[in-house]
Amino acid sequence: MRIRAYRGEKSVAEIVDKSYRNLNEDSRRALEALLVERNPELTKLSKLKRGTLLRLPDAPEVKAKQGRGSGDPEAELTDQLLDDLKRYAKVLDGRYAERLKEIDEQVLLLKDRTFKKVVGDSPDARVVTEALSGNLAETQKATKQRRAQAEKLLVGLQKQLAERKR
After folding, report:
1. Which phi and psi angles does 24 have, rounded to 5°?
2. Residue 104 and residue 13: Cα distance in Å, rounded?
3. 84 CA to centre of own chain
4. CA-CA distance, 66 to 152, in Å (whole number)?
5. At which of 64, 95, 111 does a domain end?
6. pLDDT for 146
7. Highest mean pLDDT: which range of 126-130, 135-139, 161-165
8. One domain for residues 78 and 157
9. Residues 147 and 84 in one domain
10. Residue 1's pLDDT is what?
11. Measuring CA to CA, how many Å separate 111 from each of 6, 26, 129, 131?
12. Which residue, of 14, 44, 64, is where some domain finishes?
């Protein structure tokens, strides 16, 4: 019996099509039924998480597709983890970029002439504005550091997984 990871397919038929080749309609239906029998979680496909291991039924009259998903389960999981880490790194970097942009906008607001006119020459307003500017600078620096640390960590994890795959 082979195993493969669920990769977000929309139907059991799609999983079967990606896992086997040279199927006629009868073989496809039979394999779909066997697949669901061996993996009851497929009845609620929308709730299934990516990376969930599926037990593929053996079908001697049908050849399994070669390549990703048909070989070593550890290599397949490693590939899945690498893909997930890359996606996560991209999302996380986008969030850091968004946060840094928000900070930049707030800094610009504090430097804006109109803002300064509204605040006026009040000593209290000046103290608050200076404190806000200082806090924003610290937040910006800390955010950049966390972004760099996260990137370094994720790149390191990807390298470890890539080496393990060899």
Report:
1. -95, 175
2. 50
3. 4
4. 34
5. 64
6. 97
7. 135-139
8. yes
9. yes
10. 61
11. 52, 72, 9, 13
12. 64
Structure tokens belonging to residue 56: 């593929």
Q: What is this structure's pTM?
A: 0.57
The owner of tokens 């795959």 is 165
**Rounded Cα distance, 30 and 43, in Å:** 16
Mean pLDDT of 144-165: 91
- CA dist 48 and 9 (Å) reads 10
Euclidean distance between CA atoms 4 and 15, whole angstroms: 10
Q: Provide the pairing of β-strand 53-56 with 2-5.
A: antiparallel
Q: What is the pLDDT of residues 70-118, one digit of tens each?
A: 456 777 778 878 888 888 999 999 999 999 999 999 999 988 888 888 8
Residue 82: which domain range?
73-165
Q: Give the DSSP H/E element, type plus range, for residue 135.
A: helix 123-165
Residue whose token pair is 């994720």: 154
Buried b (16+ CB within 10 A) or exposed e, 121-142: eeeeeeeebeeeeeebeeebee
Tokens representing 1 are: 């019996």
Q: How many domains does the chain have?
A: 2
| CB contact burial 75-88 (16+ within 10 A = b; e otherwise) | ebbbbbbbeeeeee
Distance CA 48, CA 166 (A): 29
Structure tokens at 21: 């080749």
